[in-house]
Amino acid sequence: MKILLICGLFFSHLVFAKTIVIVGDSLTEGFGVKTEEAYPAQLEQMFHANGRKDIKVINGGISGSTTANATSRTKWYLKMKPEVILFALGANDGLRGLAIEESEKNLSEAIKLAQSHSVKVFLAVMKLPKNYGEDYRTRFEKMYENLLRQKNVGKVNFLLEGVGGVASLNLADGIHPNPEGQKKVAENIFLSLKDQL
């Protein structure tokens, strides 16, 4: 009986040897779609379909969240002892016109905390609509470049590449991806991560 228990524990660990937590907002949570249609779940399925059945993806998205709670949320998810954390935050900061310096500081602290626990960190680049003004948009995108360079983290390309502004891939609000849009987001992330894990 004891041998069976040990074997069971071994194989359960073997099945999901690498846990990826995605700390994000409504895009990650899957606003307006089913849990299994949100991109984290679809991303996990893509890894499994490509022979990486050892990967488990945890959806850490909370609608409306900004970088302000990035560190506190990271502390919570570190209890799960993930091997990888992907930060997909900042979109709401930008849409609300929050101070970029503060957003950068928040993300920097969260990244530092994760790295102090020997977690491999990835950062998803975010972009803003053109009506937010060239200066703010440029400084917003520069923030991600700074963090990628200074913190030595892995890069995940813009989540909504090929999705933003495409009516057929978004809900009626024109902001959040529908199931097909979520699939495209998962593909974008998969292409960024598959050779880095």
For the structure shown, list the relevant keywords.
197 residues, alpha/beta, five-stranded parallel beta sheet, 5 strands, disordered N terminus
Describe this protein's structure.
It is built from eight helices and five strands, in the order H-E-H-H-E-H-E-H-H-E-H-E-H. The termini are far apart. The longest helix is centred in the last third of the chain and has 18 residues, at 134-151. The protein has a five-stranded parallel β-sheet, sandwiched between helices. By secondary structure, it is an alpha/beta fold. Helix content is 47%, strand content 14%. The chain has a single domain, classed as SGNH hydrolase (Rossmann fold). The model is unreliable at 1-15 (pLDDT under 50). Helix 3 (39-49) crosses helix 8 (179-193). Strand 4, helix 7 and strand 5 (154-156) form a beta-alpha-beta unit.
- The total domain count is 1
Side-by-side strand order of the widest sheet: 2-1-3-4-5
Low-confidence residue ranges: 1-15
Strand element count: 5
Largest sheet: 5 strands, parallel
Strand content: 5-15%
Average pLDDT confidence is: 92
So what's the CATH class? Alpha Beta
The computed structural class is: alpha/beta
Shape: globular
CATH architectural grouping? 3-Layer(aba) Sandwich
**Which homologous superfamily in CATH is the superfamily?**
SGNH hydrolase
Write the layout of secondary structure elements.
Blueprint: H1 2-15, E1 18-24, H2 26-29, H3 39-49, E2 55-61, H4 70-78, E3 84-88, H5 91-95, H6 100-116, E4 120-124, H7 134-151, E5 154-156, H8 179-193
Parallel strand pairs: 1-2, 1-3, 3-4, 4-5
Helix pairs in contact: 3-8, 4-6, 6-7
